[in-house]
Amino acid sequence: MKRTLGLLLVALHAPLASAVYRCVDEQGHTLFGDVPPAACVKVPIYEVSKSGMVLRRIDPTPTPQQVELQREERERHEKEARAAAEQRRKDLALLNTYGSATEFDMARDRNIEPVNGRIRAAEERLKELEQREAQVKKQMVGWTDPGGKDGKSAEPPAWLVEDLERTRGEKKSLQEAIGRYRKEVEDLRARYDNDKKRWIALKAAGGSAAPEAAPQSEPVKAAPARRRAGY
Asked: How far apart are CA 139 and CA 151, in angstroms?
């Protein structure tokens, strides 16, 4: 029994014992050896049997630079795969949200109208502030004009100065808010225009395939609830 087991182990190790190593070095020379040739440390080495059958491949140990490049390449592929999956999700949402190209225009107008309402309210308030500023300036002239009370110039009262500063501060905030609102309208128009073009391209491709395109924003259908102007 022991003799049979010993012969079996010898038979199993026989291919390895008779194997040789083969590689093509960096100069293109094919080398053989009972051990991996030292000249092939930077290239793949193949362990082959005497009959020439490849038993296994031994890849060279990568350098730190190669390890870093491999890591970057792997991360790039993973990032591209995530982006492609996200694009497919957005495309599906776009197809499920809209039934015709006209619906994009309707949804766009519904979402823009509340923003335009805030712009109109802010502009009306801005006119009131401009009128108030003119009134305060007129009042201040009476205090600083040498030809005024007793023919002497006087400093305007603190409450009047504070009123002017407060009015000007509110004007500035409103002007900044109006700028943001107008930018929001531009962004909404561009967003719906891009989504509409993407939807048309998807429909032309059969409604399910995803032709190459720049990433799209999430489709929006319902307009937000109307709210009072704020800044």
From this structure: 16
